[in-house]
Amino acid sequence: MTQQSAAETILAVENISLSFGIMKVLDSISFDIRRGEIRSIIGPNGAGKSSMLNVINGFYHPQEGSITFKGETRKQMAPHVAASHGIARTFQNIALFKGMSTLDNIMTGRNLKMKTNLFWQALHIGPARLEELENREAAEKIIDFLDIQAIRKKPVGKLPYGLQKRVELGRALAAEPELLLLDEPMAGMNSEEKEDMSRFIIDVNSEFGTTIALIEHDMGVVMDLSDRVLVLDYGKQLADGLPDEVRNNQVVIDAYLGVPHEH
Amino acid sequence: MTFFIEVVLSGLMAGVMYSLVALGFVLIFKASGIFNFAQGVMALFAALTLVGLMENFGFPIWLAIIGTIAVMIALAWLIERVMLRHLVNQEPIILFMATIGLAYVLEGMGDIMWGSDVKVLDLGIPQGASDWMLDNFDIYIEKLEIFAAGTAAIMVAFLAVFFQKTRIGRALRAVADDHQAALSVGISLHTIWVIVWSVAGIVALVAGIMWGSKSGVQFSLSLIALKALPVLILGGFTSVPGAIIGGMIIGVGEKVAEVYLGPFVGGAIENWFAYMLALAFLLFRPQGLFGEKIIERV
Amino acid sequence: MDQKEPDTDLDTFPKLLASHVKLRPTRDAIREKDLGIWQSWTWAEAAAEIRALACGLASLGLKRGDKLAIIGDNRPRLYWGMTAAQALGAVPVPLYQDAVADEMAYVLDNADVRIALVENQEQVDKMLEVSERCPKVEHIIFDETRGLRHYEQEFLHDYEKVQLAGVAYDHDHPEFYDREVAAGSGADISIMLYTSGTTGNPKGVVLSNDNVIITARNGIVREGLTADEEVLAYLPMAWVGDNLFSYAQSYVAGFCVSCPEDASTVAQDLREIGPTYYFAPPRVYENMLTQVMIRIEDAAEIKRKLFHYFMEHARQVGVRILNGQSVSLKDSLLYKLGNILVYAPLKDVLGLSRTRLAYTAGEAIGPEIFDFYRSLGINIKQLYGQTECMVFICVQPDGEVYADTVGTPAIDVEIKIDDNGEIMYRSPGVFLSYYKNPESTASTKTEDGWVHTGDAGFFDEHNGHLKIIDRAKDVGKLNDGTLFAPKYIENKLKFFAFVKEAVLFGDGRDYSTAFINIDLDAVGNWAERRGLAYSGYIDLSNLDEVYQLIKECVDKVNQDLSADSRLANSQIRRFLILHKELDADDGELTRTRKVRRNFVGERYDILVNALYSDKTECHIDTQVTFEDGRTGSLAADVRICDAQVFADSSTDQEAAA
Question: Cβ contact (<8 Å) for A88 and B184?
């Protein structure tokens, strides 16, 4: 959480509009994310937060507007292309490979870091083996970082919810992303798990310098972690600014913060 | 006793053939949730291509095999391009219908390209009874069947390592598990589908070679796909070992039933035994022997 | 037994280290699992690390007699910190790593710590939190850099940088290290260990090199330990047992110590290392057994039957086989079959397949639990010890192991029972003093070196083994004059897998009553198998069926007590199941997880009063502390249940005995 006022813009979203049929999900949204910052997107349920993330990583293709990522402007990109350009993400409803072990899930996150072709892979010798070992080490560092050594070999489908969230973060980190999209990483967690997760997010940001876009409902967490906060409401952009500015913005208070929320 | 063993063994060997076809089904079903009706026809198509390349173009065996593999990969690519890509996120039933269409297209193409008469496939795979088995154990068993079993075993071992220990294997499992998550880690579904269909194509080629060597390459070959269905119900749609063991159970079951029960019900048990067994499984254990949550999953 | 005269020149740890570098330079001294792989350091490599660190500490100003605090999980670098300090004649002071900052502040200040060597950011944060209250702490050295990148305090040092500075210092002062090591002697202070204490502030037990090394060597001689032992260092470094088993005895015998990857992976690491020499407090053995039982209950029918059949056989003959007694050929063969099918795989799962010697101590262990392990062929023995004498007072001799005694005096240990029934001892391990606390020293240790244990006990007439009943000060009386030994009864209750903790009341009262904590795993599993729905601990502990289950346990204990005329009147009349688990963070348990009975009694006085009334239910509102330090409240209606009381049956028992 360092001041990044002069930092370059890693992602700029301009006038994005997205509709499903007659439902307008995002209405001309524009904002930017600076390299190295933690950028939160908040808003009530149905505000379009997750849709915004889905647009950024290419799951949704907006009807209007453009996205500039690392200087390249495009209208849309395929999810695996977004991933290969350094965007990784987690999901609101955990999307892990449930039948696979923690280690395999994280290794899958290394997918783009591994380049050997099908031929070597099929034989499982030579460069493919060496590559496998190198990436295993990288995966182990993430396991160590997230303190999940004890569940290394366990199938993730059988893990408790909080740990699954952690493994999902691990899988995203394994790609060594430049931009990490976290969709409600603390949903459904108890206060202790939330604190752990906050710690990890801060550490990811400060240790690896990863830029983070965060959707979160817990206002305490958002205000503590974020450098800047974007507020959405029914697909419209309500406010954008420093946590304190947003907190004191009357429109935001009326629309959102005024409503009692869990804390 | 020897006779019984002979029956069981020949059942096992026939079962391996079923297994090979079922394996192709499982691969595609696991990775894309598509029930590929055309798997049997793919085996036929592969065998036809192989024979065609050897007879019409005079390719030596090894070149013909490589050529056929190339054709199967090209086919996988085409299927992805022309069919799958446009049907993303459609209902399973629609994808299933598409594969029925694919089956007819392939059958037609095979007919147009290589003709519809029965062809002999001779790859120099040893034929006839195994003397060694006959001499030592007094058991009659065909060399081809031993060869088929060995090939199937090697292929399964190979696939197991490939799936468990390699990046692409992991990616295949990842896609099978959760499409969205797989996309988010940079796995391209298109590439994975091409790979899966290619692997299924190669498995089909092996199955085609085995069946073709045994009974000649003919269009009834595509019907073995129907036998693979009970195998899948038995073994579970998502389990590679399930496909293998399911195939063997069906193979042994129908042979034993034919020989020992056949006389009492007037024979031809072989034709319907597999389906009865599958029906029983559907009633009592719908996920199959090794199948995963697929059915329980909400 | 090894009759070789010990080398008395090797009277400090740095000197022992140097001797291993000569004797076995390429053998592993210490291991640690990191990034999923066991990394190891030979004695020569460890010695080089220690030398660099010692010189680095010297360059930061650590001098003879100074104190170095060590805080963290078991890590090679932290163990090296101990030896490095000792090389300089400084004194390592390990602290409990899970203590909250406040608790640490007291020890840091009391021990006059100048430098702290800590594991990671978590510990650094705690140190910074209390830095104003501990002005004597000048430097903090951290092992793991993660999260500390943006900490800019000048007194914070990266471990590796300190070592680099040490290498430079060594280069400039080449004789320094050897000279400092040579200056050390057996009479020097080796280490200060703070006892957690059930009341008051912790006290720093000052132990000399002679105390530690001679006691460690006596233990090795008695059990015939060698340089080939494998040990897993997983208990807190601040605890005397870890210092003895994972540090002192490793240095004396020359065996390798392995540090687990993480506190959560100990069970897996145990399996991978397969220790030959193992220590665990009773609760660890209990937990292992509970886990096994849960898994067996969930296993397939055939497996379960096989397990129960062979465990029953082991119960009958296993202990005799372990004790070297003869059994019939059939039993012996059946036991061997059982070993292949059940015992060996089970021991492998537990990580105890190579264990030649397993100790337990600290609290009484349930006889069923004890016999379970022994019947599997694991030589688990109880010992009786204290921080004040570097552990060993009594050890059970091989082949003479009884669940209700703690064995015979360890080598060079004298024991006597004073007039109040309190056990006293004298040994070469007896501590020098409590740090800066002459009053406590004088009240604990007599002028001729006898130490009050604070435990009440006696020697068994038949086998000459020491038997411990209770804490001397805890043994009280009911109003009718009946002896009230709460811990004795609590332990009986805790022998049931369903009972996690029990707290007895009765001193100065008309009758005995109890608080029970159920074991969430065991009772939860029990409830699930019966299809009982519950939403959490409180809900579970309030179920009728659970009350009935616990009542049966209490009744059995009462029946047991009724067999002893001195205790028959102290049978539990009424009990309740507590609505929350007793927790060290709430001060209800000590850091070593012993119940603080008085504290619990005061905290829940409403409930205690209810137990001594005729109420059948009592409402309570409790303040609880979460792990992040915040507090909240927990309200519940706790039910009170009467237990069955049995007539005094001691006369029959005596006749039978």
Answer: yes
Q: Say yes or no for a CB contact (<8 Å) between C262 and A150.
A: yes
- CA dihedral sign of residues B65, B68, B74, B80: negative
The token pair that represents B209 in the structure block:
């070679």
| Interface A:B, Cβ pairs < 8 A | 98
Which residues of chain A neighbour B162 with C-beta distances below 8 Å?
A: 121-122, 124
Question: Closest chain A residue to B162 measured between Cα atoms?
Answer: A122
Q: d(Cα A109, Cα A95) in Å, to the nearest integer?
A: 13
* Residue A1 confidence class, pLDDT cut points 50, 70, 90: very low
Using an 8 Å CB-CB cutoff, list chain B residues near A97. Answer: 173-174, 177-178, 181-182
Note whether C95 and C61 are within 8 A (CB).
Answer: no
| Percentage above 70 pLDDT, chain C | 95
Query: With contacts defined as CB-CB under 8 Å, which chain A residues touch C261?
Result: 149
Task: Tell me if the pTM is above 0.80.
Answer: no
pLDDT over 90 at C80, yes or no: yes
Predicted-complex ipTM score: 0.79
Report chain A residues whose CB lies below 8 A from the CB of B197.
none
**Where do the structural domains in chain A lie, given as residue ranges?**
9-86+177-257
A145 in contact with C at a CB cutoff of 8 Å?
A: yes
Chain B residue with the nearest C-alpha to that of A58? B184
A251 vs C16 pLDDT, higher one: C16
Residues B89-119: pLDDT tens digits? Answer: 778 788 888 888 998 898 888 888 777 777 7
Convert C236-270 to b/e letters by CB count within 10 Å (16 or more is b).
Answer: bbbbbbbbbbbbbbbbbbbbbbbbbbbeebbbbbb
Chain C hits for A199, Cβ within 8 Å: 147
Amino acid at C356: R
Contact A36, A205 (CB under 8 A): yes
Looking at the DSSP bridge assignments, the partners of residue A128 are none
Q: What is the count of structural domains for chain B?
A: 1
> What domain range includes position B51?
2-220
Q: Identify whether B121 is part of a domain.
A: yes
Out of B166, B178, B189, whose CB is closest to A128? B166
Report yes or no: A76 at the B interface, CB cutoff 8 Å: no
* pLDDT tens digits, one per residue of C117-146: 999 999 999 999 999 999 999 999 999 998
Structural domains of chain C in order of their starting residue, each with its CATH number: 13-279 (3.40.50.12780), 282-470 (3.40.50.12780), 476-656 (3.30.300.30)
> Is A149 within 8 Å of C265 when comparing Cβ atoms?
yes
- Torsions phi, psi of C232, nearest 5? -105, 120
Rounded Cα distance, C358 and C367, in Å: 15
Choose the most confident range, by mean pLDDT, from B59-68, B199-208, B287-296, C104-113: C104-113
CA distance A16 to chain C (A): 37
Helix axes B269-284, B240-260, angle to 10 degrees: 130
Does residue B40 form part of some domain?
yes
Chosen from C262, C583, C624 to mutate, greatest number of chain A CBs within 10 A: C262
Determine the Cα–Cα distance for residues A63 and A5; give it in Å rounded to an integer: 31
Domain at A9-86+177-257: CATH architecture? 3-Layer(aba) Sandwich (3.40)
Please check whether residue B99 lies inside any domain of the structure.
yes
Nearest to C287 by CA among C557, C494, C576: C494
Note whether A104 and A156 are within 8 A (CB).
no
Residue B160 covered by a domain: yes
Per-residue pLDDT of A97-143, as tens digits, reads 888 899 999 999 888 877 766 666 666 666 777 888 888 899 999 99
> B205 to chain A, minimum CA–CA distance in Å?
18
How close is the nearest chain C Cα to the Cα of A249, in Å? 30
Q: B155, B185, B240, B296: which to substitute to probe chain A, counting the most A Cβ within 10 Å? A: B185
